[in-house]
Amino acid sequence: DIQLTQSPSSLSASVGDRVTITCRASQSISSGLNWYQQKTGNAPKLLIYSSSALQSGVPSRFRGVGSGTEFTLIITSLQPEDFATYYCQQSFSPLFTFGPGTKVELK
Amino acid sequence: QVHLQESGLGLVKPSQTLSLTCTVSGDSISNGNFYWSWVRQPAGKGLEWIGRIFIAGSTLYNPSLKSRVSMSLDTSKNQFYLKMTSVTAADTAVYYCARDREQVFLDPWGQGALVTVSA
After folding, report:
1. Which residue from A minimizes the CA distance to B110?
2. By C-alpha distance, which of B5, B22, B10 is closest to B94?
3. Is the separation of the CB atoms in B51 and B59 below 8 Å?
4. What is the pLDDT at residue B103?
5. What CA–CA distance (Å, rounded) separates A53 from A76?
6. How far apart are CA A90 and CA B30, in angstroms?
7. Which candidate, A92, A32, A101, places its Cα nearest to that of A67?
């Protein structure tokens, strides 16, 4: 199966900061990479699909880039409601796998 | 607006069978554009995809759980189901159902159902 790693595992940031989270795949997955946001006690929410497509209703400060084995989620200006855990998920293989998550905390 | 809701017993004894239902509203599970997936998350840990089912009845399961998992659906009730046999404490988790867009992404998700495996 395709393994995903994320870095960092956690980060501290302030409102207004630019935040970048990296997801690496164990093999090339083309653009088959999605990003989810999960707030404590809630279900994950789709932010970005197919590496760079913004899901309807998601603020434009969220941006996804990458292809092959390396992908990045960028939050251009962190807002108070963005403090959460972010997961990547590959869809290149029909056997979905998720990254371990990156927790974004308030500095 | 599509809404998914998990339901089922919250406490299951070790070695018994976990059974969950996902009720879908705002969309038909007969919609051939979507699959229907289950994902679980142990407390404080990451997400694990369990498997998916399609209206034609085809299924695909996580190989690590395949021997213990089965999924089915009932179009008349607009529900789909998860069964997991021979559960242990390691199966204690929040279980989510989600609409699976053509094996590309999961959206939306249900709110989740906590299942605890304990004697």
Report:
1. A43
2. B10
3. yes
4. 86
5. 16
6. 25
7. A32
Q: Which residues contact A37 (CB under 8 A, 6 or more apart)?
A: A44, A45, A47, A82, A84, A85, A86
Query: Which residues, numbered 18 to 77 in chain B, qualify as contacts with chain A under a Cβ-Cβ cut-off of 8 Å?
Result: 37, 39, 46-49, 60, 62-63
The β-bridge relationship of strands A102-106 and A10-13 is parallel
Q: Is A71 on the interface with B (CB under 8 A)?
A: no
Q: How many residues does chain A have?
A: 107
The backbone torsions φ and ψ at residue A90, rounded to the nearest 5 degrees and listed phi first, read: -95, 145
Partner-chain contact B103 A55, CB within 8 Å: no
- Could you say which DSSP state residue B104 is in? T
Amino acid at A79: Q
Nearest-CB residue to A46 (from B49, B103, B107): B107
In this structure, are strands B3-8 and A10-13 parallel, antiparallel, or unpaired?
unpaired
Task: Say how far apart CA B53 and CA B99 lie, in whole Å.
Answer: 10
pLDDT tens, residue by residue, B1-59 = 999 999 999 999 999 999 999 999 999 999 888 999 999 999 999 999 999 999 888 99
Query: pLDDT (tens digit, 9 = 90+) per residue, B64-111?
Result: 999 999 999 999 999 999 999 999 999 999 999 999 998 899 999 999
Residue A3 CA to residue A98 CA, distance in Å, equals: 8
Q: Which amino acid is at B29?
A: I
